[in-house]
Specification:
This protein has 315 residues and is an alpha/beta fold. It has one domain: Inosine-uridine Nucleoside N-ribohydrolase, Chain A. 40% of the residues lie in helices and 18% in strands. The chain is built from 15 helices and twelve strands. An eight-stranded mixed β-sheet has the order 3-2-1-4-5-6-12-9, sandwiched between helices. The chain has a two-stranded antiparallel sheet with strand order 7-8. Strands 10-11 form a two-stranded antiparallel sheet. The radius of gyration is 18 Å and the shape is globular. The model has no long low-confidence stretch (mean pLDDT 96). Bound molecules: alpha-D-ribofuranose (RIB) and calcium ion.
């Protein structure tokens, strides 16, 4: 029986890869896709999700609804230099104009609450952007969110440097208050941080070979929209490829054994002048029963992940 999943996304390039991965995985049944401002503005995120859905001949498209235009308390900090000004490598218009689309249903929070109430323990939320929508849903109806089976959030950096300044990971940097609320809610949360996602790189050469072999509309689009993301990594990280941050969060929803986790209390820095968004955890000690703990992924099974990712993406 496929696992009911809600994906909350700030629809950048690695989000698009994660969506294509999830939508072609029979283990998952995507019950809704909600968008949140992060990599780019939320309207672009929504258009990017609709563009990705059009790359697949899906029998039925999941509901797509728009969410937060900005973090809970801060102005939006986005990443056009990484994902393109449109969030899809600056090629969305060539893939699908999307002109005239919208306005979209803007009630991501109510959809999240609705799916939690409807599917309860069966539901997994895969949050691959800032946690603004999830925190708002928790604030609005904690009873509903407490019914969820698992929340898998791509975010944080524990034993590795950040990717947004020296200590913070992007999703939790953008909305540290939302991350603090969700990680300290007591909900069943699995954190998939840079510690593991930065061990997974899709190299440009491999992508092009696999895409050529597949030679589908999706494969051709994938080569196009990942180009600038990979050029960014080439310029900043020294390899021609891209980190698969969000696809790993999807893989954990399909097969939790892709990672090993440690249970620990996590604080998210919200007041730090130099450490905004930093995730702070004391792995030295056993979890303190009096404090809320979450499961933090600390190692990743590379072969298990790539077998799943490539198997589902290219068939
Ligand atoms: O730090 C990486 C995360 O931030 C990924 O989810 C990426 O899409 C951005 O949202
Ligand atoms: Ca993302």
């Amino acid at each position: 029986m496929p696992r009911p999943v809600l994906i909350d996304t700030d629809a950048g390039v690695d989000d698009a890869l994660a969506l294509l991965f999830a939508l072609q995985s029979p283990e998952l049944s995507i019950k809704a896709i909600t968008t949140v401002a992060g990599n780019v503005g939320v309207h672009d995120c929504t258009l990017n999700v609709l563009t990705v859905l059009r790359l697949l001949d899906l029998p039925a498209s999941p509901e797509v609804t728009e969410g937060a235009r900005k973090p809970l308390r801060r102005s939006l900090f986005s990443a056009p230099e990484v994902h393109g000004t449109d969030g899809l490598g600056n090629v969305r218009r060539s893939l699908w104009g999307g002109r005239g689309e919208g306005p979209f249903r803007r009630d991501a929070v109510n959809v999240i609450i609705d799916r939690c109430l409807h599917f309860g323990r069966k539901l997994t939320i895969v949050a691959i952007g800032p946690l603004t929508n999830i925190a708002r849903a928790w604030n609005k109806n904690p009873g509903a969110l407490k019914r969820v089976g698992r929340i898998i959030t791509m975010g944080g950096a524990f034993r590795v440097p950040g990717n947004t300044g020296p200590v913070a990971e992007f999703n939790y940097y953008v909305d540290p208050e939302a991350a603090a609320i969700v990680l300290n809610s007591g909900l069943p949360v699995t954190v998939v941080p840079l510690d593991v996602t930065q061990e997974l790189v899709l190299m440009r050469t491999e992508l092009e070979v696999r895409a050529q072999r597949k030679s589908s509309r999706m494969a051709q689009a994938l080569v196009k929209f990942t180009k600038s993301y990979m050029q960014y990594h080439s310029a900043t990280e020294g390899f021609s490829g891209g980190y698969l941050h969000d696809p790993l969060a999807v893989a954990v929803a399909i097969d939790p054994a892709c990672v090993q986790t440690e249970r620990v209390h996590v604080d998210v820095e919200c007041a730090g002048r130099f450490t905004r968004g930093m995730t702070v955890a004391d792995f030295r000690r056993k979890p303190d029963r009096k404090r809320v703990s979450v499961d933090v992924a600390t190692t990743v099974d590379h072969n298990r992940f790539f077998k799943l990712f490539h198997g589902r993406l290219w068939g």
